[in-house]
Amino acid sequence: MKALCTCGVLAGPLFVVAFLIQGAVKPGGYEVLRHPVSSLALGPYGWVQTAVFVACGLLTVAFAAALLHLSGVRRKIGAVLVGLWGVGLVGAGLFVTDPVSGYPAGTPALPAAYSTAGALHDLFSVVAFFSLGAATFVLAAGSGRTWAVYSVLSGLAFLGFFFLSGVGFQQDSSLVDTAGLWQRLSLLTGWTWLTMLAWRAKAYMATS
Q1: Gap between the Cα atoms of 195 and 85, Å rounded
Q2: CB 3.0–4.6 Å: which of 35, 87, 117, 182 could bond 95 by disulfide?
Q3: CA 182, CA 160: separation in Å to the nearest integer?
Q4: Contact 137, 151 (CB under 8 A)
Q5: pTM (2 decimals)?
Q6: Which residues have C-beta within 8 Å of that of residue 96, sequence separation ≥ 6?
Q7: Where are the alpha helices (DSSP H) in the chain?
């Protein structure tokens, strides 16, 4: 079980480091502040982000399997929600997003019609984000006040940043130029919480 928890420890840093590096070197007019992480799967070397989605999703599912072995209904519900985050990441990787906000260069701000792959990507992404957001609240209680407060604040920030990014990607004039930033703040908040959860679970299993 400790090895599966290690998967949870590794998933977040891998995902964050990958999108930071790719965002810095992505050619073709990609803008970190404006464009979503998912758009890294478009254009040159897009397979890298696809691989990151799938790998981090599978690592998260492995961690969720470890959480299922913890006692208590609340923890098991939380484990399922964490697993859905992982499944959502895998799906988001297997189905490539449609262009948005003018990337790749020459594409419209929003597609005239969503492709099947793009629609499925968005569906998996929404399920993933709301599942992880719910997990922060479900797993807040039962591990001390500090963890509870941190989890609730993380969940509120995670979903709040996600909402702002979604409005921006729909081309709201006040948020479109910073939508990528809000999404990255959401991802950083969520992955940090999940990494902390994995560390705590690993330490708990080592002493139980």
Answers
A1: 13
A2: 117
A3: 9
A4: yes
A5: 0.95
A6: 41, 42, 46, 50, 117, 118, 121
A7: 2-25, 46-67, 73-94, 116-138, 145-169, 179-207
Q: Does residue 208 surpass a pLDDT of 80? A: no
Indicate the number of domains in the chain.
Answer: 1
Beta carbons of 95 and 122 less than 8 angstroms apart = no
Q: DSSP assignment, residue 96?
A: P
Q: Which residues share a beta bridge with 103?
A: 100
Q: What is the pLDDT of residues 68-104, one digit of tens each?
A: 988 789 999 999 999 999 999 999 999 999 999 999 9
Tell me which amino acid residue 61 is.
V
Q: Which two tokens stand for residue 144?
A: 């001390």
Task: Specify which residues 151 forms β-bridges with.
Answer: none
Report the pLDDT value the prediction gives residue 144, as an integer from 0 to 100: 85
Q: What angle do CA 87, 160, 185 make, to 5 degrees?
A: 70
How far is the CA of 201 from the CAs of 1, 4, 194, in angstroms?
9, 10, 10
Report the candidate in 109, 104, 130, 85 with the shortest Cα–Cα distance to residue 173. 109
Q: Contacts by 171-179 with C-beta closer than 8 Å and gap 24+?
A: 171/101, 171/109, 171/110, 176/34, 176/101, 176/109, 177/33, 177/34, 178/33, 178/34, 179/34, 179/35, 179/36, 179/101
